[in-house]
């Protein structure tokens, strides 16, 4: 997965962290959790606030 695979990342995060309410996650935690996902293989420096916000929004939708 790459940073642009927002929906796939959201699904993986939902499965990896079912106890977390994604509305209240800090971007620093989100960044670290994405990097720790199995199959994630992208440059940590390529993320930005816009990408992390898109992942957070997709995760919120996935959790509903």
Protein model, in words:
By secondary structure, the protein is mainly alpha-helical. The protein has one domain (6-63): Arc Repressor Mutant, subunit A, CATH 1.10.10.600. Helix content is 56%, strand content 0%. The protein has three helices and no strands. The chain has helices at 6-16, 27-36, 49-63. Helix 1 (6-16) crosses helix 3 (49-63). It starts with 5 loop residues before the first helix and ends with a helix. The model has no long low-confidence stretch (mean pLDDT 97).
Question: What is the compact description of this entry?
Answer:
The chain is mainly alpha-helical and 64 residues long.
- Total separate domains: 1
CATH fold assignment: Arc Repressor Mutant, subunit A
Estimated helix fraction = 55-70%
For the largest beta-sheet, the strand count, sense and barrel status come to: none
Order of helices and strands: HHH
- Based on Cα principal axes, name the global outline: globular
The CATH homologous superfamily is called IscX-like
Return the average pLDDT rounded to an integer: 97
The radius of gyration is 10 Å
pLDDT below 50 for ≥5 consecutive residues: which ranges? none
The total of beta strands comes to 0
Question: What's the total helix number?
Answer: 3
Structural class: mainly alpha
CATH first level = Mainly Alpha
């Amino acid at each position: 997965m790459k940073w642009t695979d927002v929906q796939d990342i959201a699904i993986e995060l939902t499965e990896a962290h079912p106890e977390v309410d994604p509305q209240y996650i800090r971007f620093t935690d989100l960044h670290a959790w994405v990097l720790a996902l199995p199959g994630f293989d992208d440059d940590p420096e390529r993320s930005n606030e816009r990408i992390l916000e898109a992942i957070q929004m997709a995760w919120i939708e996935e959790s509903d």
